Amino acid sequence: MELGFGGDVARYYARFRRGYPPEVFEALDETFALTPQDTVLDLGCGTGQLTVPLARRVRAVIGMDPEPDMLRMAREAAPAAGGTDVTWVLGADADVPALGALLGEHRLAATVIGQALHWMQHEDLFAALLPLIRPGGGVAVLANGTPAWLQDSDWSRALRGFLEEHFGTELKDSCGTARKDRERYAPALEAAGFTDVRHRVVSYTEEVTCEELVGGIYSALPERQLPAPADRPAFAQRVRQALPHRETFTERVDVSVLTGRKTGEATGRPTGKLPGRAAPTGSP
Ligand SMILES: C[S@@+](CC[C@H](N)C(=O)[O-])C[C@H]1O[C@@H](n2cnc3c(N)ncnc32)[C@H](O)[C@@H]1O
Fold this sequence. Notes:
By secondary structure, the protein is an alpha/beta fold. The chain is built from ten helices and seven strands. It binds S-adenosylmethionine.
């Protein structure tokens, strides 16, 4: 299957995809009782939107992704953002059992999957993750809002109309961000043996510029559909013309956090043989 997250798409992803708000990390902390001794896996980590803030809260994060360009961008940006305790691993959901062999007796506190589960065999993945996670830990499936062109506002409808005409296709695939996806993932978590399956939404609004909207579009296109570099100024101009005449556009961001826990109390102690680290170095 073509992933299409390489080359310039990874560059646009790193620059224009928003991170997650602090409340999301607080919810993960609380749900999985994260400690400074914990290790977390961020599967489908992309350019590190979840990885780096998590690395400031736990001992170490494994950022795993099958797209080398996404990992490269993430690795380059992480130290400046304070995410120093990250191991970047080239791999996909099918490699999780092999990761288990590597971890040995050490258990993950959590696996987070942000905007990426729709690329994976989620039932097999949840089953493979359960034995790798410590009691009280779990899995979190996140969606970072609805794509800008699928929202319920005048400018979003205008953007959608332009993109549908430009690409000659109806835009409705919300890439794992829609309720229908969550309704499949929640019972699959339970079927795999996770409990306390819970859904939370963290909502806020943000002003975005036309440049940010265009960057967001480029970050969501398969690499082969990205306009050639020479054509990008004209594309951006056409987006601007299609939008209402404004400096910024109000975007409502509903971050969806679906969690399932592994039964048992969190111990708050390291469960494996890897050496511990003193304390988290900051907050997101
Ligand atoms: C939309 S990005 C999400 C990045 C980041 N997690 C976020 O929340 O913004 C999706 C990522 O999933 C990765 N991906 C695609 N197929 C995957 C698979 N089978 N296993 C793991 N990651 C995958 C892609 O390479 C891409 O980096």
